[in-house]
Amino acid sequence: xxxxxxxxxxxxDDKVDQMAFKRFADQKDFPFEYRICGSISEGLEALKxxxxxxxxxxxxxxDGTAFDILSDISGIPLIVVTGTGNEExxxxxxxxxxxxxxxxxxxxxxxxVLPVTVGNALNRFEAEQKLQKYYEKLEDEVEKRTRKYKKxxxxxxxxxxxxxxxEEKFRTITEESADAIFITDKEGCYRYVxxxxxxxxxxxxxxxIRMNIRDLASEETAAASMNEFxxxxxxxxxxxxxxxxxxxxxxxxxxxxxxxxPDGFIYGSCRNISDRKRAEKQVMDNLREKEILLKExxxxxxxxxxxxxxxxxxxxxxxxSKDQALEAFQVSKDRIYAMSLVHEKLYKxxxxxxxxxxxxxxxxxxxxxxxxSEEKEIRFEIDADDVFLDIDKAIPCCLIINELLTNAIKHxxxxxxxxxxxxxxxxxxxxxxxxxxEDDGIGLPxxxxxxQADTLGLQIVRLLTGQLDGFFQIAKADGACISIxxxxxxxx
Amino acid sequence: xxxxxxxIVEDEIIIALDLKMRLENYGYSVLxxxxxxxxxxxYAESHRPDVIxxxxxxxxxxTGIDAAREIKRKSSVLIIFTTGNPHLLYDDKGIKIFSETVxxxxxxxxxxIGAIESDPFA
Lengths: 492, 122
Hints:
The complex is a heterodimer. Chain A has 13 helices and 19 strands.
């Protein structure tokens, strides 16, 4: 396929010159197509509708000069044609941006150079176009690269800044941590320690940084801690409770968490757990105390249940009639209640040796009034010191008082509607407590001797008084008064 | 069969009284009650009982075990431990410290009589 012929626009108002061109261009080996316009305006019109590769324009035209179209031809190569003697115009045209010039000679030789001139202009134009494209591409490339580098530079700058910020952040966290933080080399020599580490160990930064972990072990723990250090370098991680020696020589229990870093150094964080250890010990002590207490209580409960069974056995022996059977239930119930009240007070007491006796008397007398005084109005008057008894003494004491009170309620006021019973529990002196029950009733029969009493109630009073190493005194006239002296222990 | 003399070692006087009356009901002769380890050792020597019913936890620091150890040094009297806490008679490994019969409190008449009448040397 032959390349499409390039097209020339000739602007020429001289008819003769037009004819001459035509004649030349119509020869069969003329390598271009052409169109002829007779004026600038006609030429510009043609440019709007047709595509031309090169413009040949006479300089002087009736509606202007060839320069007038320069701005409208959008890069199409312009060759200015002038007459002989107008060489300055040719020079001017070249300066203005024309590609080349032709000088009309009368003989018309200039046609002979026309194809070459046009060809050259076209070649140059193409070369320039190519160069322009190449240049544009280069510019583009440079700009693209520049953008890329700028972006990379910015990214690097940002990365550096955020690295710096993060480094600062972690430095602050490490430095201000409440846990002691340190880094040692592979030999255990400190390379970094934070403030908390210095405070915990009592050394300055400059002292610690010249020390080895070995220097902080106590004589007792040195072997163990070096062993753990060996484990750490093998396994890469260590959790341990470790005792460290402060500068002043005191030992502090710590909780250590260490890891081997990628560079072989060791990072560790360490916390003083003295408080925790103290609390643990406290809890263990409390637990042990409670265990002992629980065992004691088991023992007492079982013992008291045995006493109840014995009381029931003893009471049941005396039953000869239905009425006595009912009576036996009632007195047994009272005794068991008297004992259960001790346990109620015990529940509120701090320990087994701290039963509040005054509180006990109040509770017991209230309960007895409720149980026995349907037909009588009996008042109690309690006058007791703040006495706290051990459960071993409280139980016999309470059984005694229960017997004496029920006895008084039942027998002291046979004809009266009202009665007064006074309970007194006092420290007589350094060595004894005096418990006395006094009523304003008929008094005890003259023949009653508590020592030989055959009622179980009085027998219980006698035996339990003996168990407490105490002794009685009885006043029989003007109401009854029984007082019991109980040896007192130093702590009661 | 002659009337056996029995020594009750018990710091709870009510429990002791109950035991005494039950034993007397079966025809045994009951010696004065010993409320402490010290009394137990003294009465064992002075009254020469045939059987001792020995409580383990007593008032004061000495236990029935201490008293039994001392009594056995001098006599071959039959000792029966009566306790609400039988574990006290076993060591840490659960092995019984003594060869004596142990009665868990409270006990029935049958258990009581059975223990008294068992002859460890038969």
